Amino acid sequence: MIRKQQYQNINEVLQQLPAKVLHTAVVSHYNSESAEKKGKRFAKKMKRLQKQLKNANYHII
Asked: Is residue 13 part of a domain?
């Protein structure tokens, strides 16, 4: 039970990351069975970030 609480605290901090670090996003993942959904969510967020970078005249390497 302690481990679960520790992860919850970490997850709460990670959720704040995009508000503090430019060009970042958070994708949630619940268990191994949701890996495909996670990948799709990650890809969607990555495409959005790449579009933001392109619009901001940054070069994507």
From this structure: yes
- Residue 60 falls inside a structural domain: no
Rounded to whole angstroms, the Cα distance separating 26 from 42 reads 8
Residue 61 lies in a domain: no
Question: What is the three-class DSSP state of 19?
Answer: helix
Residues contacting 55, CB < 8 A, separation 6+ = none
18 within a domain of the structure (yes/no): yes
Contact 24, 17 (CB under 8 A): yes
Q: What is the pTM of this model?
A: 0.43
pLDDT digits (tens, 9 = 90+) for 8-50: 788 788 889 999 999 888 877 666 667 788 889 889 999 998 8
Domain count, the chain: 1
- Largest CA-CA distance found in the chain, in angstroms, rounded: 47
